[in-house]
Amino acid sequence: MHAVAEVAATFAVPDNVFAEKVVAVEHFTDRLFRFRITRPASFRFRSGEFVMIGLPNAQKPVFRAYSIASPSWDDEIEFFSIKVANGPLTEHLQKIKPGDTVLMRKKPTGTLVLDALLPGKRLYLLSTGTGVAPFASLVRDPETYEKFEEVVLVQTCRQVDELTYITRLVEDLRDDPLVGDLVEGRLKLFTSTTRQTFPRMGRITDLMTDGRFFEMTGLPRIDPEIDRGMICGSMAMIKDTSAMLEGFGLVEGANNKPATFVVERAFVG
Ligand code: A2P
């Protein structure tokens, strides 16, 4: 029996927590990995929301907020995680294997949901690093394509190999039986790096502000009449990207007050 599962047996699982099994783990770099867990039949969430997760390795486990990267129709739950050497959760989480137990609090929440946006034509999903996770959920949800004609998914990372997760996910989507036809010609992925040579380089804030993004993609400048935005990244990224969207005339909204863009912090475990 694996160490984590052995420990699990010694601690009671509280009522507000699900104890689920890891079904798959994939490491992309020494700092990034994804994993999938079983989905409890009673667990409902909206694509783009986050949930608190932890490990059954202490009487009072450390819980951290994780965006759910899988869409709401999926029968498993996927997460995309950073590995932090001395991170109270991720130093252990990065070692999980299929069959291990992951704890998940029962109540999902978050602002990166389609209901928090006013109707529009084009949806911009702007992320850095693991901030792409909630968008990995939304681009796989048919409802996104019912509400928007076009979806532009953006991820900026320091290094090229940090873009692998979303690049492969979008490539695989074309063959997906549920959303393959929907994404055809309507989902655009724009990736860029800032610290390693790549065909597209620069922070998204710089690329959009000076117009290079629009030149490279052929997309028109952001128009508050038809364009909507979601932002997920570090505190500094959120601040600067929000200011940029406000500069284009968009207004920040929330679940109880839909507007033209919404933000969420990318969580670090
Ligand atoms: P940069 O390399 O120029 O700092 P981090 O790992 O620090 O969160 O950064 C992830 C990516 O987000 C990096 O490519 C980084 O660019 C970029 N980034 C960091 N801060 C901002 C910001 N305020 N606005 C836009 N992009 C940012």
Characterization of this structure:
This protein has 269 residues and is α/β, with parallel strands linked by helices. The chain has two domains: 3-105, Beta Barrel (Elongation Factor Tu (Ef-tu), domain 3), CATH 2.40.30.10; 114-264, Nucleotide-binding domain of ferredoxin-NADP reductase (FNR) module (Rossmann fold), CATH 3.40.50.80. The chain is 23% helix and 27% strand. The protein has helices spanning 3-8, 90-93, 133-138, 142-147, 164-173, 180-183, 204-209, 212-217, 235-247; strands at residues 17-27, 32-38, 50-54, 64-67, 76-82, 101-105, 122-128, 150-157, 187-193, 227-233, 261-265. A six-stranded antiparallel beta sheet has the order 4-3-6-1-2-5. It has a five-stranded parallel beta sheet with strand order 9-8-7-10-11, with helices on both faces. Helix 9 (235-247) links the parallel strand 10 and strand 11 (261-265). The longest helix has 13 residues, at 235-247. The relative contact order is 0.16. The mean pLDDT is 94. The structure holds adenosine-2'-5'-diphosphate. Adenosine-2'-5'-diphosphate is lined by residues 128-129, 156-158, 194-195, 203-205, 234, 236-237, 240.
Protein structure class: alpha/beta
Major sheet:
6 strands, antiparallel
How much beta, percentage-wise? 25-35%
Q: What shape does the CA trace take?
A: globular
How many separate helices? 9
What is the share of helical residues?
10-25%
Q: In what order do the strands lie side by side in the largest sheet?
A: 4-3-6-1-2-5
Give the number of DSSP strands: 11
Distance between the termini: 26 Å
Tally the structural domains.
2
CATH class of the largest domain: Alpha Beta
What is the gyration radius calculated from CA atoms? 18 Å
pLDDT averaged over residues: 94
The succession of helices and strands, N to C, reads HEEEEEHEEHHEHHEHHEHE
At the fold tier of CATH, the topology name of the largest domain is: Rossmann fold
CATH superfamily of the largest domain: Nucleotide-binding domain of ferredoxin-NADP reductase (FNR) module
Q: What small molecules accompany the polymer chains?
A: adenosine-2'-5'-diphosphate
